[in-house]
Amino acid sequence: MSLAIFDLDNTLLSIDSDHAWGEFLLEQGAVDPVTYREANDRFLADYEAGTLDMQAFLEVALRPLAEHSPEQLAAWHQQFMASKIEPHILSKGEELVARHRTRGDTLLIITATNRFITGPIAERLGIDDLIAVEPEMVDGRYTGRTVGIPSYREGKVKRLDAWLAGQDLSLDGSWFYSDSHNDLALLEQIDHPVAVDPDPSLREVAEARGWKIISLRD
Q1: How far is CA 73 from the centre of its chain?
Q2: For residue 99, what pLDDT band results from cuts at 50, 70 and 90?
Q3: What's the rounded Cα separation, in Å, for the pair 161 and 212?
Q4: CA geometry: angle at 16 spanning 184 and 183, to 5°?
Q5: By the 8 A CB rule, do 41 and 18 touch?
Q6: What is the pLDDT of residues 100-153, one digit of tens each?
Q7: 81 C-beta neighbours (distance < 10 Å), count
Q8: What whole-number distance in Å separates Cα of residue 94 and Cα of residue 62?
Q9: Looking at residue 1, what is its pLDDT?
Q10: Does 168 score more than 90 pLDDT?
């Protein structure tokens, strides 16, 4: 048995769930239609380029969680799952997860997207363990701030190390599936790094290092 780690956005999903949530909020009229759309698109481009200012992004991305009630957010998330997420869950991704589950591997999603968005997605995929950006809650409401280290780039390595310290697990024989060059720091720690429909930068590294490259797209 080994640890099988999965990135989420553009790996098990064919979209970026963070950006899709922003699009969903725009459709609901929950955010400013001009400034929020510009920021949502700009931050996605910065992420893809490897230049994302994570703190600046989180200040914008988490603000709507603080501005609306938990009840409203929960109702929106149900709609979001049905309209934006379910059509973009990759069947080959589910098959990959199922193969690791059948082997008895421990399944873990690690993502730079926050837990409010990704918790229900991980549950839908049947993966109990999730490392994500943690939005702060006080008295049952989101504050717009975060708790702990954001699980982004080197932060994923730190968060995984902390998680492993609380488990009876190691990285021996581990697998990590990701599409993004932003995950290189973690891919380099893994026994079996796998580039999944990789961006050009990750593909170049994977080819140079002889890492496995796969596609989960139909």
Answers
A1: 19
A2: very high
A3: 24
A4: 5
A5: no
A6: 999 999 999 999 999 999 999 999 999 999 999 999 999 999 999 999 999 999
A7: 17
A8: 29
A9: 83
A10: no
- Helix axis angle for 17-28 and 70-80, nearest 10°, is 110
Which token pair is 52?
């994302």
Which of 133, 111, 113, 91 has its CA nearest to residue 177? 111
Bridge partners (DSSP) listed for residue 3: 106
Q: Which residue has the tokens 């640890």?
A: 3
Which 3-state string (H, E, C) describes 24-89?
A: HHHHHCCCCCCHHHHHHHHHHHHHHHCCCCHHHHHHHHCHHHHHCCHHHHHHHHHHHHHHHHHHHE
The CA distance from 82 to 217, in Å, is 20
DSSP string for 180-195: -GGGHHHHTT-SEEEE
Residue tagged active-site, from 7, 16, 18, 179: 7
Q: Of 126, 158, 171, which Cα lies nearest the Cα of 5?
A: 171
End-to-end Cα distance, the chain: 29
* Residues 131, 118 contacting (CB under 8 angstroms): no
Cα separation, 114 vs 61, in Å, equals: 9
Establish whether 7 is a catalytic residue: yes
Catalytic residue (one of 9, 16, 105, 179): 9
Using DSSP bridges, classify how beta strands 129-138 and 141-147 pair: parallel, antiparallel or unpaired: antiparallel
What would the two tokens of residue 114 be?
């926050």
C-beta neighbour count of 133 within 10 angstroms: 27
3-state secondary structure of 107: strand
Instruction: Name the amino acid, one letter, at 79.
Output: Q
